[in-house]
């Protein structure tokens, strides 16, 4: 079903200004087409008949903010999405990372954690996990709780297992989790080197130096100017010769960083030159 | 050409699912490369790394075919193909964006999502065509475009490999025109401003 349009463009602007002033979350440079759909969607989910009702709830009930942000940001993710990307990580990036005594990876916009577990599995299989740290960050505290638990619906596992095999995985995928009724819980040793933390790409600064920054299907929700700002943040957070991985349809091409990076073949992975 | 009083078409959308590729491959060679608007294709396709659909379409078209990336700019006389596993949205009249939010009608890209987004930006200045398919996706989007004043076309279900999708659109009165594949290219050509 198509959702009716409840929020008009100028109302969206008013709402974003409110949120920015009251709560310090700045969505004004998010891509409007997607954001408008999300705000409309939450009006339907939470039964706001008008912009005024939504605005009232948001401005008078600070506890509603977390839910609002969680619902207007897209938290759809999966394990080993785009298996060829993970194959490239295995074959082209990890052999380089393996030369470091200690590997720091930043997974920006980790959502409910499926990518973090995917990368942990890859690192284990490359025998690098013991000397790695995965910093998994997201704007939403709620999704980080899910990520930390590592509990997912069992009906996804067939797809994830197929993706895993396509990514070059040779183990039995089901050995990485334990099933219990409709859910699976990923093994605790996969979480050993994960650090979960909230981080807002719009407003927070660099917090460490990394050899690999993974941020897939996050920049698509940002307007170009904000994309450039976030890409500079990644650049500031990457060691020389570090790797930057973006989503399958995202690019460095429109940014002023392109000249300082070299793309690896056809995958959306770039290496910082110096 | 009977387009008197119609708003100028600034964008043409084509949505299709099962059975639509053959229609496109037959029709696209006859579409003029100097169209005064871009053509955007929303096709249900399997997410896969080695898709060559853009190349296949380019080989059957006199226009350039671009598989859409994030923030792709629209140019007239060019075909834009929605990538697998993303919804395609319109930021403004010349800028596309992508979104990987939940599937709609079991589909991502969803034809409904893109049709609605286009209608919100282009209002009546959009034409849209719904081809063969086994999914209900697209019928509601086509109706939305019609309601916004856009020009709507459904493939004649009797000519469709899978009639369900265009038939659903026609049932709900979403189609201004019902066309067989053989008439589609000239219909699109005639919407171009440069055509007399």
UniProtKB/TrEMBL annotation, chain A:
It comes from the Bacteria. InterPro entries: Bact_Chemotaxis_MeTrfase, CheR_C, CheR_MeTrfase, CheR_N, SAM-dependent_MTases_sf. Keywords: Methyltransferase, Transferase. One of its GO terms (biological process) is methylation. SMART domains: MeTrc. GO terms for molecular function: S-adenosylmethionine-dependent methyltransferase activity. Residues 1-252 form the CheR-type methyltransferase domain. Gene3D superfamilies: Vaccinia Virus protein VP39 (3.40.50.150). This is Chemotaxis protein methyltransferase CheR.
UniProtKB/TrEMBL annotation, chain B:
Its EC number is 3.1.1.61. The keyword Ribonucleoprotein does not apply. One of its GO terms (cellular component) is cytoplasm. The active site is at 17, 44, 137. It catalyses: [protein]-L-glutamate 5-O-methyl ester + H2O = L-glutamyl-[protein] + methanol + H(+). Residues 10-188 form the CheB-type methylesterase domain. One of its GO terms (biological process) is chemotaxis. GO terms for molecular function: phosphorelay response regulator activity; protein-glutamate methylesterase activity. Keywords: Chemotaxis, Hydrolase. It is an enzyme of class 3 (hydrolase). The keyword Protease does not apply. This is protein-glutamate methylesterase.
């Amino acid at each position: 079903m198509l959702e009716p349009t409840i929020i008009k463009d100028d109302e969206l602007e008013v709402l974003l200004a409110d949120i920015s002033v009251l709560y310090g979350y700045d969505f004004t440079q998010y891509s409007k087409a997607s954001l408008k759909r999300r705000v409309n969607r939450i009006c339907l989910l939470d039964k706001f008949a008008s912009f005024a009702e939504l605005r009232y709830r948001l401005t008078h009930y600070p506890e509603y903010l977390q839910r609002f942000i969680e619902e207007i940001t897209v938290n759809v993710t999966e394990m080993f999405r785009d298996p060829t990307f993970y194959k490239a990580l295995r074959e082209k990036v990890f052999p380089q990372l393996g030369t470091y005594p200690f590997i720091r990876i930043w997974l920006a916009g980790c959502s409910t954690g499926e990518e973090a577990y995917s990368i942990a599995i890859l690192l284990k299989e490359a025998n690098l996990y013991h000397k790695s740290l995965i910093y998994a960050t997201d704007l939403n505290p709620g999704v980080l709780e899910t990520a930390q638990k590592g509990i997912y619906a069992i009906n996804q596992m067939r797809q994830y297992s197929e993706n895993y095999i396509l990514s070059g995985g040779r183990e039995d995928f089901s050995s990485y989790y334990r099933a219990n009724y409709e859910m699976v819980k990923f093994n605790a040793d996969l979480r050993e080197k994960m650090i979960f933390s909230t981080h807002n790409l719009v407003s927070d600064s660099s917090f460490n130096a990394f050899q690999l920054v993974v941020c897939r299907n996050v920049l698509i929700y940002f307007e170009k100017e904000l994309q450039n700002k976030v890409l500079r943040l990644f650049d500031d957070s990457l060691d020389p010769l570090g790797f930057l991985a973006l989503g399958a349809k995202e690019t460095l091409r429109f940014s002023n960083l392109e000249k300082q990076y070299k793309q690896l073949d056809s995958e959306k992975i770039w290496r910082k030159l110096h | 050409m009977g387009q008197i009083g119609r708003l100028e078409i600034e964008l043409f959308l084509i949505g299709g699912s099962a059975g639509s590729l053959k229609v496109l491959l037959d029709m696209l060679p006859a579409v003029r490369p100097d169209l005064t608007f871009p053509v955007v294709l929303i096709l249900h396709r399997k997410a896969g790394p080695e898709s060559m659909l853009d190349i296949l379409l380019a080989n059957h078209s006199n226009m350039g075919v671009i598989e859409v990336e994030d923030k792709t700019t629209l140019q007239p006389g060019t075909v834009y193909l929605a990538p697998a596993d993303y919804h395609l949205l319109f930021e403004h009249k010349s800028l596309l964006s992508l979104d990987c939010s939940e599937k709609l009608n079991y589909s991502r890209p969803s034809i409904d999502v893109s049709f609605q987004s286009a209608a919100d930006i282009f209002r009546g200045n959009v034409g849209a065509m719904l081809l063969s398919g086994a999914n209900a996706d697209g019928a509601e989007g086509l109706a939305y475009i019609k309601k916004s004043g856009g020009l709507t076309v459904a493939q004649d279900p009797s000519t469709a490999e899978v009639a369900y999708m265009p038939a659903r659109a026609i049932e709900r009165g979403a189609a201004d025109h019902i066309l067989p594949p053989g008439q589609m290219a000239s219909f699109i050509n005639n919407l171009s401003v440069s055509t007399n």
